[in-house]
Design a protein that fits this description.
52% helix, two-stranded antiparallel sheet
């Protein structure tokens, strides 16, 4: 498989969608909505997750069969371009962030795949997400995503976390707005969390060892 993180190309989601639906994409690949939620979680979550770690998840652990090097760079560049676009929008113009949701036959917005993709990214490093999950108030930001995206509520990244009983139809109808609020809140939580850690480090810098190297 070619280098998984070429320079970002213009974001052509239609071309990416067509490739993900083609026979050249591995059978276990995500659909178009799932990686959008996945990339959003990577963008707003704790720490920096390198593309070499998250790109294979989009393909379900297998390798796509690109027809040419040009196609590989175009498709992989679209994925990294969408990640960069999400990061830029959430940093500079969060009101313009437009998640890629499916639309049902009757015009209803389907958010479950997007939320499932978000949870796939959380599952990459669940321990890193524990400060949010264990926070008495901020933990509520992940609850709608768990309820919307988990196939089995008994098998979620944070199995000990209590989840409320909800009306499924009402939850699905409110899903788009809930997701936008959760994404903004989660990004804000980690920004504040990182700032506090940086301030604590400045107040209490690591002590240098006084031991001398043996000659």
């Amino acid at each position: 498989m070619p280098e998984p993180f070429p320079p970002a190309e213009p974001v052509d989601l239609d071309a990416l969608d067509a490739f993900l639906l083609s026979d050249r994409a591995p059978e276990g690949s995500m659909g178009l909505s799932d990686p959008d939620g996945f990339l959003t979680a990577i963008a707003v979550g704790p720490g920096l997750v390198p593309p070499s770690e998250w790109m294979p998840v989009i393909w379900g652990g297998d390798e796509p069969a690109f027809e040419s090097l040009d196609e590989a760079h175009r498709i992989l560049g679209t994925i990294t371009g969408r990640y960069n676009e999400i990061t830029h929008l959430l940093d500079t113009a969060p009101e313009d962030f437009d998640p890629v949701f499916w639309e049902g036959r009757d015009g209803e917005v389907i958010v479950t795949d997007w939320a499932a993709g978000f949870l796939d990214a959380v599952a990459l490093r669940p321990r890193a997400w524990e400060p949010l999950v264990q926070h008495p108030e901020a933990r509520s930001l992940i609850v709608p995503l768990l309820l919307l995206g988990a196939d089995d509520l008994d098998d979620v990244p944070f199995s000990g976390m209590p989840l409320p009983e909800v009306d499924e139809e009402e939850l699905l109808a409110a899903g788009p707005g809930l997701i936008l609020g959760c994404v903004a809140g989660i990004k804000g939580f980690w920004k504040e969390h990182d700032a506090k850690r940086a301030a604590a480090t400045r107040r209490n810098p690591p002590r240098r060892s006084t031991a001398q190297r043996r000659r």
